[in-house]
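agent> Task received from the user: take the single chain below, predict its 3D structure, and emit structure tokens. No templates, no multimer pairing.
agent> Plan: (1) validate residues, (2) run structure prediction, (3) serialize to tokens, (4) report one or two observations.
agent> Step 1 OK, no nonstandard residues flagged.
tool_call: predict_structure(input=
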Amino acid sequence: MLTTDIPKIIARELSIYPQQVVKTMELLDAGNTVPFIARYRKEATGSLLDEQVRQVAEKVSYLRNFVKRQEEILSKIEEQGKLTPELRSRITKAHKLQELEDLYLPYRQKRATRASKAREKGLSPLAKAMREQRERHGNALRFAASFVDPEKGVETAEEALDGARDILAEEIMEDASLRQDMRSRIWKQAMIETELDESKEGAATFLMYKDHSEPLRRMPSHRILAMNRGEKLGLLKVRLDFDHEQAIENIFRKIYKGPSIFREELHHAIENGYKRLLLPALEREIRNHMTEEAEKQAIKIFGMNLQQLLLQPPLTGYTVLGLDPGYRTGCKMAVVDPTGRVLDHGVIQVTKSEGERQQAERKVLSLIRKYHVTLISIGNGTASYETEKFVSNLIFKNHLDVHYLITSEAGASVYSASKLAREELPEYDVTIRGAVSIARRVQDPLAELVKIDPKAIGVGQYQHDVNQKFLGETLDGVIEYAVNHVGVDLNTASPSLLSHIAGISGTVAGNIVAYRDANGPFRERKTLLKVPRLGPAAFTQCAGFLRIRKGKSPLDNTSIHPESYELAGKILSLFHMDPSDLGNPAKTARLALERPHVNEKEIADKLSAGLPTVHDILDALTSPGRDPRADLPKPLTRSAITDISEIKEGTIMRGTVRNITDFGAFVDIGLHHDGLLHVSQLGEKRVKHPSDVLSVGDILNVKIIQVDEKRNRIGLSLRGVKQ
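)
tool_result: status=success, residues=723
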């Protein structure tokens, strides 16, 4: 592969045009960020989506490293004087790293092996004679006698044959074509088998893997990771079942040329090389490959779930009471106003004596009435069910116009103890900060969740078993996409939120907040250029994603980039408007009514502008300040609780998708535990993966198909259920 081949290869893999890849590579090499390229350089990229730009960036990095490795291998083999034209051609034409390493294997410097020691003893000619199989008369032992040399450590003819077989075994098993063929055969034909040690603690978790067997190539990612975990814990023994004798015979037939005195020696060498060298190496490769693919799938699911969670619509305008349940330390409370400012806080006991519970009722009722609380956010951790029961009874008994919802508190404790939480809420202790976070999460999930390490949010599967570096990079990319997709209010955003905006580092985010604190709210985007360490290049990347409400220019409250303000003004003039009219609801409503009938191409041609940019500007002008999350369904709130003992099979209930895995989805239906909607129950037709039809946050009607009260397990189905 040549460097010039990279755009063609990526274009073929992503089903886009090579020129789109070339332009995207140029923009990336110039230091532009993925969100900026996807949003504001559509003419150059052919309107590639954010995910496509990110994929181009990843593949460019991989292929450039591949070409670099290719050049290293060519150089190292050439230094050995062994680079033939045929080998150069095979290395240059390779497109996979495994193929490249297979070709390099015979020339790679190794620590001392049995074969290398045999070569030092002068046994290479004997190995060559055995490989060529030209000797038809006599016997192998007599032929090998001429290689006996005590000075070199070859005492007998038998030792000479042993050494020659070692050389032959290594040479044959390092053949690139043979390795590729055997790798393919094992992948297609092998079974993976597991054996459970039931005597060890924790074995019950892996009971399904007791004497388990299934085709290697059909193992789903979640079972691969579960199997790996069981093996790591010493509970499972894992092995590949494959017809090894047949494999040895297949290799022998490829090497065998006809009757020879070395026939048995050749077969012996192949059998030894297969069992000692080839099979262990291929088993490691295949298991590693399976694990890598399973990890990629798990990380993909985690990223997808996280993105959907981050983009949950905010419940704006509510004064929220956040409750962080607990048994021993009680239930922590925090009341926050619609802007997230803490109004009051305290601790109540709802799980101990009747007197304490009644006192808690009076205290919560007082807060609800004093601050006009309209929504209660209950954390889903320890004592959540009891707290929900308490809140439900309180609402019913006092006829309150209040609803509640169960909020995932994953990561709340991480945030509470963080430096950021101490800086944001210095006057409150760790426990109250958790309640504040639980309240704010429903007001603006994105703004609150970006403060937490995404690995602590808990919407993945086997997240602790996967490559943590790759997981971190993927989740950072997801957060970057979500934050820039929504945009942030420059005058209210926290440093943690600002640090995910394209072109803004953590240091610059801190500088923006410091400048804002010292000089008051930003009135226009270009003032950002006065912020220390935020120069023209960073301004270009970040400006379009930052919003200023009630600033000098209404355009600053849109996704229109400052570089396109002049074009936006020209477009507005075609509708007899100017930027100041964007604050007039009647005029923007008129523009919105005309929008479906606008000929965008005609406008683009008339103004000598790019069609994608004209399209995006028109979208922004018709709904200035619009939050893209507004189109999504609002979270499901409740006012009454249901006990698992009250539900029966066949009951239809309404629930919220909390988490998606490879094998199904977990749905909150208002019980103590989420119900499992297995992939087999997602509809009348077979669904390949739950993510094809579900998203985190979806609100569904589900049918109860199984109730196991003892184990607190509820089975759900969508079959025959109207949505």
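agent> Step 4: summary for the user.
The first strand starts at residue 191 and ends at 196.
agent> Done.
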